[in-house]
UniProtKB/TrEMBL annotation:
NCBIfam families: calcium/sodium antiporter. One of its GO terms (biological process) is intracellular calcium ion homeostasis. This is H+/Ca2+ antiporter. The chain crosses the membrane at residues 12-32, 44-71, 77-101, 113-133, 145-163, 184-207, 213-231, 252-273, 285-306. GO terms for molecular function: calcium channel activity; calcium, potassium:sodium antiporter activity. It is found in: Membrane. InterPro entries: K/Na/Ca-exchanger, NaCa_Exmemb, NCX_ion-bd_dom_sf. Residues 13-160, 189-333 form the Sodium/calcium exchanger membrane region domain. GO terms for cellular component: plasma membrane. It is a multi-pass membrane protein. It comes from Enterococcus aquimarinus. Its main location: membrane.
Length: 335
């Protein structure tokens, strides 16, 4: 596959990038849907499904591509993709949602914000080796123990999500459990296996394509992963948030975005860092662009959540978020 991709014309290479991105996104959606269907077959509650399968499933594209990137030795891709997805979800997805309708910010998602702030600060400070201004132009390092710590934290985050979903869900009369259709179950399992294979193959091909594109363009893989790839993997969230906001369900989108952001750090980066025997090297561009932008966006989110006057992201604030995203995209390719 690597030889095939490296021999393609740049236009064909870009088309392959789009194709692999679409396959990754669609196969992930199918895998999640079938996993949810099987969970229903076994009588697992909606709360547990939402707090586990759906929550983790939203980060599956980033997780699969990051694992492949680590196995290929391109840690810049893994770090850029995860952090770029956090920035894209926060700035672009929520910004577009605010322009489309209303994005209420319920106080119940404060726990997710806490996990996001804590994990982001731990990520940044754990990577800094020299605590002076020189770190802005120096490489940092994330040791495997940080990845293990993030992974250990994932169950606690999922548990908090489970508790919050339980509080918001009204008790319903128990429904009579239907017998499991073994034929349908086998079909669903087969679809899951095929989808998992598609995810793995498309993720591998996507990482290879991005590496080739970065080589030809003479820019870092972290830049492409943090901008173009992150945008591509966030398109489903962008679509659902836009639709949800127009239909008056913006608060659900807010919770999903925060949850996806937390898992991008704790799960995606946790796996990536833990899988690297010598840890992950952090290029200076992360201290110059990615980390400051992420911190600025989280600061804005904190203001939105605890602003007692409105409790929602207004259209003007949505414009600010989108402006920050466009600025981030522009600076990333200029520097």
């Amino acid at each position: 596959m690597e030889a095939f991709i490296s021999n393609q014309h740049s236009v064909v290479l870009f088309l392959l990038f789009i194709i692999f991105l679409v396959i990754l996104s669609k196969s992930t959606d199918i895998l999640i849907d079938r996993a949810v269907d099987i969970s229903h077959e076994f009588g697992i509650s909606q709360i547990i499904i939402g707090a586990t399968i759906v929550s983790i499933g939203t980060s599956l594209p980033e997780l699969s591509t990051s694992i492949v990137a680590i196995l290929k030795g391109t840690s810049d891709f893994a770090l850029g993709n995860a952090l770029g997805s956090v920035i894209t979800n926060t700035a672009l997805v929520l910004g577009v949602g605010a322009l489309a309708g209303s994005i209420p910010v319920p106080s119940s998602i404060a726990s997710r914000l806490f996990f996001l702030i804590a994990s982001l600060f731990i990520l940044i400070f754990a990577s800094i080796e020299t605590f002076n201004l020189q770190f802005l132009s120096s490489y940092g390092q994330l040791q495997p123990m940080i990845g293990i710590f993030f992974l250990v934290t994932v169950p606690f985050f999922l548990l908090s999500s489970f508790i919050q979903k339980g509080k918001r869900t009204k008790s319903k009369a128990p429904q009579e459990k239907q017998p499991i259709n073994k034929k349908v179950l086998m079909i669903q399992i087969t679809v899951i296996l095929l989808s998992a294979i598609a995810v793995a193959l498309s993720a591998t091909s996507l990482v290879t394509t991005v590496s080739e594109m970065a080589f030809r363009l003479g820019i870092s893989e972290a830049i492409i992963a943090g901008t173009i790839v992150a945008l591509g993997t966030s398109l489903p969230e962008l679509s659902t948030t836009f639709t949800a906001a127009r239909k008056g369900h913006g608060s659900l989108a807010m919770g999903n975005v925060l949850g996806a952001n937390v898992l991008n750090i704790l799960l995606v980066l946790g796996v990536s860092i833990a899988m690297s025997p010598n840890g992950i090297s952090v290029p200076p561009i992360f201290y110059q662009i990615h980390f400051p932008v992420a911190l600025a966006l989280i600061g804005l989110l904190t203001y939105f959540i605890f602003n007692t006057k409105k409790h929602e992201i207004s259209k003007n604030e949505g414009k600010v978020l989108i402006s920050i995203y466009l600025l981030y995209m522009g600076i990333s390719f200029i520097l």
